[in-house]
Write a structure and sequence with these properties.
Elements lengths: L4 H13 L3 E2 L4 E2 L14 E2 L4 H9 L4 E5 L11 E6 L2 E9 L15 E5 L24
Parallel strand pairs: 3-7
Antiparallel strand pairs: 1-2, 4-5, 5-6, 6-7
Length: 138
C-alpha cells in the first residue's frame, strides 16, 4: 500500500524530531495511561438517561475527583464525574489496567452512575461486572 506524500513527509519529520505526535494527522501514537486519574474520560455502562444522552452527543464523562488517598482510581473506587455539565458520583466497574489474577481486563474504563445515597441511577448494567466487586463494600 503506497503512502501519500503527506504521510511520507510526516513520518520522516517525526523520525528526525523524535516525537510521537503529528499535529497534521490529528492522532497520537504514544502509549495510553491505563490508570484512572483526574480529567480522564470514562464510559458509562448503565442505562441511565443522562448516560444515554451523553453517549448520543459524543461527550463522555470526565473524572474530576477520585475518593481515595492517592487520587488514582482502581476497580470499585468511587469517583466524581461531570456528565453534560452536571456532577455525578460513580463507581469504577472496569479498567484497561492490568488486573490481579481472575479479574477481567476490559477494553475501556467503565463506570456506573449512582446518586448521593449510593443507589444506581440506571436499572441495568450493559457489561459484565467482575465478581471481585461483590465482596467490596461500595
Amino acid at each position: 500500500m503506497a503512502l501519500s506524500i503527506h504521510q511520507q513527509i510526516c513520518r520522516s519529520f517525526l523520525q528526525r524530531v523524535g516525537t510521537s505526535t503529528c499535529q497534521f494527522c490529528q492522532f497520537s501514537t504514544s502509549q495510553t495511561l491505563h490508570e484512572v486519574r483526574k480529567l480522564m474520560r470514562m464510559r458509562i455502562v448503565d442505562n441511565s438517561a443522562i448516560g444515554k444522552a451523553a453517549a448520543q452527543i459524543g461527550k463522555p464523562p470526565k473524572v474530576i475527583h477520585v475518593y481515595n488517598k492517592r487520587q488514582v482510581g482502581f476497580l470499585g473506587d468511587k469517583v466524581l464525574v461531570t456528565v453534560k455539565g452536571e456532577m455525578k458520583k460513580a463507581y469504577i466497574v472496569g479498567l484497561r489496567q492490568k488486573q490481579l489474577p481472575n479479574v477481567p481486563r476490559m477494553d475501556t474504563n467503565n463506570i456506573v452512575l449512582v446518586d448521593d445515597k449510593g443507589d444506581p441511577l440506571g436499572t441495568r448494567v450493559m457489561v459484565p461486572i467482575p465478581s471481585a466487586l461483590r465482596g467490596k463494600a461500595c
